[in-house]
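quick one
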Amino acid sequence: MLKLIHASKIYHESGVCALHDVNLTVRYGDYVSITGASGSGKSTLMHILGLLDTLTEGTYLLGGTDVSHLPPQALARLRSERIGFVFQRFQLLPGMTALENVALPLALKGLPHAVRLGRAAEALGAVGLSDRMMHKPGQLSGGQQQRVAIARAIVAKPSVVLADEPTAGLDPAAAADILTLLDGLHRAGNTIVLITHDRGAAARAGRRMELENGVLHGGESF
Ligand code: ADP
Ligand code: MG
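structure w/ adenosine-5'-diphosphate:
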């Protein structure tokens, strides 16, 4: 479903080769973790997989379609249909309620307002926050904010959820909750790519890979 073939990314401004000849396959229903030290290319890989950035060399197939050379508008449309993001710093809009934040990805879909809010409420229910829908991010704990972000990532029923160090800023209990939530999403049939530098977190995934200076090791299945 996601496939990188001889994929490289060089940041021309700095000359840094952030990904070097990466080959990666993620199938429907997979739960894949990618670990690596700071600066090893994890966020770069996430941005490539999430269509936020493009490769310097190589091919990216998404659902069998070559998306390596699509123009920005086409990438943005595919991104909104196929990708759910969870970031380390939540990236919720502070002036909006949890419900409004979660409904945002549906804004492009031309659905009636009430339907969007209904789906957002359902997604918040799935992350255990039915009783916090009208709270704004500043009124929620870090762990709760990340759960809102996960609800936002799944509300449009994307093909894949990409999580970039989603537990990094959280206390251990909240981090464990987020990992349990990701386990549940995987069991419910979602495809998940978890990027982390926490080996304990990575061990929850069915397949583990490691980035080292832009080189991807692994793809081990068990
Ligand atoms: P990680 O997420 O594993 O910490 P990154 O993917 O953020 O790693 O970075 C990988 C390498 O690419 C680092 O050496 C970083 O300095 C460099 N890099 C990341 N983003 C940019 C950018 N926009 N421009 C230039 N260099 C970058
Ligand atoms: Mg990073």
